[in-house]
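If I may wish for something, please walk me through the protein I am sending here so I can picture the backbone:
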Amino acid sequence: MKVLHLCFSNGNGGAGLGANRLHLAMREHGLHSQMLVANRVDRDPDIFTLGELGLGRGFRHVFKKQRLMKRLYRTDVRLAIRSINLPKYNLASVVNDWDADVVQMHWVGNGFLPVSELPKINKPVFWK
């Protein structure tokens, strides 16, 4: 089985750490596990960033707009608990083209996966 994990990070915060541990455990048990993240904290060859896929510019644009909107709403811009999720790049098509049987979503907020992209994913999705 081939699993693609989607998470904002593979090591910052509880979701990122948990996603990375699950990714590593799946590999240890013989599954083909890969991660797609916005913020990579190590050099695991099975962890890919939006920038490596050519989506980094679109994501940075969304992330900057999101920070501005948080400031306007007088919200701490460092808080990731509030996601504006402005659709600006087509992450669903990347996920659909990925050689994976299932998609495991972890923390996909903070502008990583816009809500409008969810119905476009045509693979089985598990969300933690």
Summary: The mean pLDDT is 83.
